[in-house]
Amino acid sequence: MAELVDALVSGTSGGNIVGVRVPFWAVVRFVVLRKVVEVIPSSSLRVVAAFAFGAISTGCGPSVAPFANASSELERAAPAGAAGYKVLYRFPGQAAGSTPTGLTAFKGAQYGTTINGGTHTFGTVFVRTATGVKILYSFKAGADGSGPTGALTAFGGRLYGMTEYGGGAGDGTVFSVDTQGNERVVYSFTGGSDGAAPAMGALLDDNGALYGTTTAGGDRECHVGKSVGCGIIFSLAPATGKESVLHRFSGKPDGASPLGTLLVSGGKIYGTTEFGGNFDNGSVFVLTGSKERRLYSFKGYPDGANPFAGLTLSNGTFYGTTAFGGAFDYSGTVFSLSAGGEEHVLYSFSGTPDGAIPLGGLTADGDALYGTTEYGGNDIRQCTGKGIIGCGIIFRITAAGREQSVYRFRGSPDGANPWASPILRNGTLFGTTTSGGHGGSGTIFSLHPTAK
User: pLDDT by residue (tens digit) across 364-397?
Assistant: First the structure.
């Protein structure tokens, strides 16, 4: 297994795995896997091996195993909450887009991006209305960007997002698009001190400025895997495109590779880094003006490791997820954190039947929080065909740590492998899966949480 991970890591270059275009943050996963393999028991390698193959398959479109050909094992797996779950759209792939990574409600419709597909195959911006889904813009992988990830942010009548690649230097962009599909590049990262490869997190709108992070660039003396720089926090003036770097991460013990959406509270900005911190398992930070301070460093066991998503504030407490770490098989956690940096593990995922590897953040609904896991929930090997334990779940958790699997994905026809947290509108959850559906290119779904 260690040899497999090493081969995958050494085979990456410029966001490619064995000739397949994948997101940079998916490539970074293999750095995590190399560490995880060294510390977890051999009985857990099934999860890790499948995770490696899942990073390849979801990054290049349809899964390696066709969901439409799944056996009766799929039919026998009765998902919790099936009565309240509805597939709103199944992405056909190719020009119609594939691998959606989140939704944003704006002007009575839902907008999002797909990493792959479109006319030029480099990703799309789409809109979903009562009449269906329409592709608004297809990226060309030139100055306009390539590989959009994460949810969009509404600001000043337009939607803003980020591409991981493309732009003037090929190191990613911040772009905006109107409801008619007119796209413009607001800023192109150069890959130097200004940052590179923004991924997964949405932009934060605060007092007329946009705030975000990049996973690479910044401090060129800092490295994560083969990337140069450990990422930055930036602000951007939407009207002029002027970027200001607020902090350059320096790795251990500061932090490295921030992925999640930033959160503002009390005039301060809070966020997470996937790596760095005292133990190089990620951190939570707070930014006051241009001064960054580390609030918490993850140890891995039992408190969690490698948060991909940002924080959620509910009733005065911060909540979040870690993709790895925890008490069971390195399958991830849900945690709470006080403003003073006191962390508590609310729940450790174990894989089956409760889910594994939560990449997205949490959505608050009263006293409950909702989220997704990319894998786990059941033992349907047909989901990806590489030994993964399940297609992922939608879960509900209380502040007391009571977790419930509200829905377990089956691959076909309902979807598989959600990355993003769902959004809540009028008592209904809406979200996306990166794969599954009829063609393996992902879905848009809704779920009434009360139907359990």
Answer: 999 999 999 999 998 877 665 334 579 999 999 9
Beta bridge pairs of residue 122: 117
Asked if pLDDT for residue 245 goes beyond 80, the answer is yes
> Two tokens at 235?
């602000």
- Nearest residue to 433 (alpha-carbon basis) of 407, 403, 404: 407
**183, 175 Cβ separation under 8 angstroms:** yes
Binned at pLDDT 50, 70 and 90, residue 94 comes out as very high
Amino acid at 207: N
- Mean pLDDT along residues 330-354: 94
Inter-residue contact 377 to 354 (CB < 8 Å) = yes
DSSP per residue, 330-399 = T--EEEEE-TT--EEEEEE--BTTTBB---S--EEETTEEEEEESBBSS--GGGTSSS-S-B-EEEEEET
Q: How confident is the model at residue 438, as a pLDDT?
A: 83
pTM score: 0.85
The tens digit of pLDDT for each residue in 190-199 reads: 999 999 999 9
Q: Using a CB cutoff of 8 Å and minimum separation of 24, what contacts does 166-174 make?
A: 166/122, 166/139, 166/140, 166/141, 166/142, 167/143, 168/143, 171/195, 171/196, 171/197, 171/216, 171/217, 172/145, 172/196, 172/197, 172/198, 172/214, 173/144, 173/145, 174/198, 174/203, 174/210, 174/212, 174/236
- Beta-bridge mates of residue 371: 395
Instruction: Summarize pLDDT for 18-64 with one digit per residue, the tens.
Output: 333 456 555 444 444 434 433 333 323 223 333 333 332 333 233 32
Length of the chain: 452
Residues 6+ apart with CB under 8 A from 239: none
Contacts 24+ apart (CB under 8 A), 219-223: 219/193, 219/248, 219/249, 219/250, 219/251, 220/192, 220/193, 221/250, 222/249, 222/250, 222/251, 222/256, 223/251
| Residues in contact with 35: Cβ distance below 8 Å, sequence separation at least 6, in sequence order | 280
Place of tokens 């009765």: 78
Tokens 């945690």 belong to: 335
